[in-house]
């Protein structure tokens, strides 16, 4: 029987150690945002282990770091959107694979901000909303970037009447001021574009908002006669489930006066009458709510 070479395991261990050291050298340089040093370590790794599984993702990260040195403003149509898509599609997964989710988010934040800075001169276009600085700032997760996003949204004409900018403002204000500050914006968004509310809630990642939306989905059915967008009823249901939110929710701007908003305003009136003890008017308002939205009336009376 052939005797195994005693040096073979040591040689394999040595080569593996070299691979690991060079990978760590690349990652250390990347965390320092030193593209030149990262490139040198990456080249050494490629020479030692040309089939190493980390070569491709590390190369993607180095290329992204080099590209971040470009400060030229975006000018052509779709440039900012394509840059953001490439960062999300190619660079972000590579960063998460190499750094882990939390460290990757921190590493990616300056890249998102750099893209946003290059997009600041772009005007908002309804047909191409992603070709704008605000979604890039919001992707960074940085507090200063969220403030910049809110300021940019405020510069869009009639932003509160357009679903995308309204959703951006809610997300930016949530990042800077928390959930309590954005209840009026979320109510307005639910009436204007209910599907957008769901997307904004996911982007905010607020645990309380997520729980309330899930409970609304589980507990409330507005009925088939109320249209295909049940989330439009969320603010009205919220007044019943969380009456302490009344002072914040009634700050919501008036929208297009659809049925969900009219019932919301009626519930605001009802809660006010309850607090004032005006029983005769309360009975009349309850009757109107019952006639307008039986499911909402049932939810309201269940809590009484």
Q: Could you describe the largest sheet, including whether it forms a barrel? A: none
Low-confidence runs: 1-15
Radius of gyration equals: 27 Å
Percent of residues in helical segments?
over 70%
Shape: elongated
Measured distance between first and last alpha carbons: 87 Å
Topology pattern, helix = H, strand = E: HHHHHHHHHHHHHHHH
User: What is the averaged pLDDT score?
Assistant: 92
Strand percent estimate? under 5%
Oligomer: single chain
Secondary structural class: mainly alpha
Number of contiguous helices: 16
**Quick one: how many beta strands?**
0
Describe the structure concisely:
The chain is an all-alpha fold and 304 residues long.
Features:
304 residues; mainly alpha; 16 helices; elongated
Describe the 3D structure.
By secondary structure, the chain is mainly α. Among the domains are: 84-159, no CATH class; 210-304, no CATH class. The protein has 16 helices and no strands. The protein has helices spanning 8-31, 35-48, 55-67, 79-99, 101-118, 133-140, 143-154, 163-177, 179-192, 194-204, 207-219, 234-241, 246-249, 259-276, 279-292, 294-302. Helix 14 (259-276) runs antiparallel to helix 15 (279-292). The longest helix has 24 residues, at 8-31. The protein starts with 7 loop residues before the first helix and ends with a helix.
Topology summary:
Elements (H helix, E strand, L loop, with lengths): L7 H24 L3 H14 L6 H13 L11 H21 L1 H18 L14 H8 L2 H12 L8 H15 L1 H14 L1 H11 L2 H13 L14 H8 L4 H4 L9 H18 L2 H14 L1 H9 L2
Helix pairs in contact: 1-2, 2-3, 3-4, 4-5, 5-6, 6-7, 7-8, 8-9, 8-10, 9-10, 12-14, 14-15, 15-16
């Amino acid at each position: 029987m052939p005797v195994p070479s005693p040096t073979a395991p040591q040689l394999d261990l040595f080569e593996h150690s070299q691979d690991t050291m060079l990978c760590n050298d690349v990652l250390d340089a990347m965390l320092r945002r030193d593209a030149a040093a990262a490139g040198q370590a990456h080249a050494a790794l490629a020479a030692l282990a040309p089939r190493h599984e980390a070569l491709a993702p590390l190369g993607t990260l180095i290329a992204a770091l080099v590209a971040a040195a470009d400060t030229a403003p975006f000018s052509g149509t779709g440039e900012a959107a394509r840059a953001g898509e490439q960062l999300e599609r190619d660079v972000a997964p590579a960063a998460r694979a190499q750094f882990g989710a939390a460290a990757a988010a921190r590493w990616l934040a300056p890249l998102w901000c750099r893209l946003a800075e290059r997009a600041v001169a772009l005007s908002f276009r309804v047909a191409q909303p992603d070709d704008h600085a605000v979604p890039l700032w919001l992707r960074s997760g940085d507090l200063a970037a969220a403030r910049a996003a809110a300021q940019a949204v405020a510069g869009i004409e009639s932003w509160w009447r357009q679903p995308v900018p309204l959703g951006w403002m809610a997300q930016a204000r949530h990042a800077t001021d928390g959930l309590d500050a954005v209840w009026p914006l979320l109510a307005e968004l639910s009436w204007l574009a209910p599907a957008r509310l769901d997307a904004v809630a996911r982007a905010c990642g607020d645990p309380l908002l997520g729980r309330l939306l899930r409970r609304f989905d589980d507990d409330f059915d507005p009925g088939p006669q109320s249209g295909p967008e049940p989330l439009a009823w969320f603010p009205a249901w919220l007044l019943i489930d969380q009456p302490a939110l009344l002072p914040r929710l009634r700050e919501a701007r008036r929208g297009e006066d659809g049925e969900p908003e009219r019932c919301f305003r009626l519930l605001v009136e009802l809660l006010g009458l309850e607090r004032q003890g005006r029983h005769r008017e309360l009975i009349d308002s309850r009757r109107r709510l019952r006639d307008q939205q039986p499911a909402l009336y049932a939810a309201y009376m269940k809590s009484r």
